[in-house]
Structures are given as structure tokens and as C-alpha cells.
Structure to design on (253 residues):
């Protein structure tokens, strides 16, 4: 039986909590069903009642809401290993939508199986709780950025955050990672116009901070980009502290 979903969940939880051998065995035994989703397709829609949690096995996803005028606000991006709707264990009525940004493979675990795991394995329950707290910390960073940072700074912050989150699961070697976002999607996440996003990305490239080619993002000057974005990675709460250096990027202490 394919255990890819369980293994990537285990890898993610090990980043933020200490998981022992017995916990690991029970995580690997979780029943998971998988589905592929094309870009732009809702995985879970606002107003839907859900009875299962999702694990992003590979791909890229986002959460969003629409205003009454039909304007979209993207409220989160998710990378491999994330559990975007973990909160649905306690609040199974979705107050926002969760969609594939690019072709994505999703693993589904029934709430009942997650609850049983939490009862048997308190350490795993604590790790999952920590995941929801980290989710809240990311939201707080986004709120501050949208409310108080310039367009350049909030863009820089987002690029740093995604680089670090993807590096943590081995998807951003040498500061290069897949960023399958259109300028419209970046604009809807950053609270900017498409014209402004285009100008900001151009200015960051001219300044030697980043290069972008289609869906590939390369950070050329980590220190300068992090400084511009006022990026302090402590809110991501990785168990192993991570520091940033100009030459080699992300280095675990």
C-alpha cells in the first residue's frame, strides 16, 4: 500500500514536534484515500460540511473567500505536508474555500480516524494542536503585512515565507522553488493590483533580490529580501531553529 501521504504528514509533524517510534507507527497506519485536483478546482467549498481532513501530498493550494461583490481574497497558501483544514476537526462547517492552485494530489483522512489517533497518541494530538497554532501565527503575520507593510515589503515577506516552508520539506534547494502563482493570485493574496505586483516583481529583479521564470522562483539575496520584508521566521515555530545567511541561505542550527 502506498504510504506517501502518511510519510509526508510524519515529516511535517517532525518539523514542529517530537514524534516517537510508537507515534510514527500509528501515523503510518492511518487510512488515507487520495485524489488528484486540477488547478482552479475547489477541494472543499465554503458552506460545505466536512468529515475528513486533507493532506497536501504534492502540488500547491490556497484558501480564499469572496466578497459580496465577487472580489477574491486569498488567505493562505499551502505546500506539501500541510494539513489546510485541520481546524475542521472541531469546526466542520467551512467558512472559506480551499482550492488547488496548481495540479495537486490530496490525501483524505476521516475525522474519526484522526480522533482515534489523538486519543491513543497524546503526543500526536499535541503536534496537531501545534499545527493549528502555527496556522494562526501565519495569519497574524499576513494581517500585519496587509495592514502596515508596503507592497514591496509584503511581497518580499511572502516570498521568504514560502521559501522557508518549502525548504523545510526539501523543496527549495539553494533558494530555488516552484511558485505556480499567476500575478492575479499574488495580487489577491497581497491586496495589490496586478499592475502593482508586476512592477514590484520587476523592481525586486532589477535590485538583484529575486529571479522569476514562469513557475520558478529564485532568491538571489536572502538577507536583503528578508530585511525588506521584515521577515522573522520564528513564527513558523520549527523545532530545529533556522537561521539565514547571505551565501548559503537556510541553515539548521
Amino acid at each position: 500500500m502506498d504510504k506517501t501521504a502518511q510519510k509526508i504528514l510524519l515529516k511535517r509533524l517532525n518539523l514542529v514536534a517530537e514524534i516517537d517510534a510508537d507515534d510514527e507507527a500509528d501515523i503510518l497506519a492511518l487510512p488515507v484515500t487520495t485524489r488528484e485536483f486540477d488547478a482552479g478546482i475547489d477541494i472543499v467549498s465554503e458552506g460545505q460540511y466536512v468529515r475528513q481532513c486533507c493532506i497536501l501530498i504534492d502540488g500547491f493550494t490556497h484558501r480564499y473567500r469572496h466578497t459580496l461583490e465577487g472580489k477574491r481574497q486569498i488567505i493562505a497558501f499551502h505546500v506539501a505536508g500541510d494539513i489546510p483544514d485541520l481546524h475542521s476537526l472541531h469546526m466542520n462547517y467551512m467558512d472559506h474555500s480551499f482550492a488547488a492552485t496548481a495540479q495537486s494530489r490530496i490525501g483524505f483522512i476521516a475525522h474519526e480516524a484522526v480522533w482515534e489517533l489523538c486519543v491513543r497518541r497524546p503526543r500526536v494530538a499535541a503536534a496537531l494542536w501545534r499545527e493549528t497554532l502555527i496556522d494562526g501565527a501565519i495569519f497574524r503575520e499576513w494581517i500585519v503585512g496587509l495592514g502596515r507593510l508596503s507592497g514591496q515589503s509584503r511581497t518580499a515577506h511572502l516570498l521568504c515565507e514560502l521559501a522557508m516552508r518549502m525548504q523545510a520539506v526539501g523543496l527549495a534547494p539553494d533558494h530555488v522553488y516552484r511558485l505556480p502563482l499567476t500575478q492575479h493570485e499574488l495580487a489577491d493574496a497581497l491586496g495589490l493590483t496586478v499592475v502593482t505586483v508586476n512592477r514590484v516583481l520587476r523592481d525586486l529583479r532589477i535590485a538583484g533580490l529575486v529571479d522569476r521564470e514562469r513557475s520558478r522562483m529564485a532568491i538571489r539575496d536572502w538577507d536583503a529580501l528578508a530585511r525588506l520584508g521584515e521577515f522573522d521566521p520564528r513564527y513558523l515555530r520549527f523545532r530545529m531553529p533556522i537561521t539565514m545567511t547571505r551565501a548559503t541561505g537556510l541553515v539548521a542550527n
The domain at 149-252 is CATH 1.10.10.10 (Arc Repressor Mutant, subunit A). Residues 244-253 have pLDDT under 50 and may be disordered. Residues 58 and 80 are 5 Å apart (CA to CA). The first strand starts at residue 33 and ends at 37.
